[in-house]
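Residues determine shape. Next comes a sample protein:
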Amino acid sequence: MCCCDNPTINGQMGYRWQPHDAPSVREVSPPALGERGTLLYDEPGRCGGLDCHSHHFRVVRITGSYWLYVLHGGRQEEFRMSVTTSMMDAMAAMESNVRFWFLHAIYSAYSDGNCEGAGEERRKWNKAAAEKRIKTRKQRDGSVKVWVNPALVVE
């Protein structure tokens, strides 16, 4: 948790990690773009209600699709956003701080959905393993086919 006296954006003076620290500048750490796409928005981490100094968002247009690039905690993620022209127009009209928190909300929904889906899939496979319903078959081409037999319904 940061101890900034006022909401602070990475790259600006005022960041404090501990209450006794002197205000300093937290480095801007953007996600890498690679060689494709056009950068539309670059929103460095910040605080103000939540401590999100570790998150840096970039909105990139790649051949007609919009992608959200996120760097947080040293790991980069990127995913396609399903947005309309009117949503992009609304994002263009947003002030930087509003846009950052809007992108944070989109990322949080994506991340929570990923975790929920992975957990659900893990529970399904764990239950199938415990019930010995996981089956495998080696294919002629050297690959392996893996599936879960349906659970037997006992009435």
About this structure: Residues 13-148 form one domain. The chain has one domain: 13-148. The first strand starts at residue 13 and ends at 15. The helical segments are 85-93, 96-130.
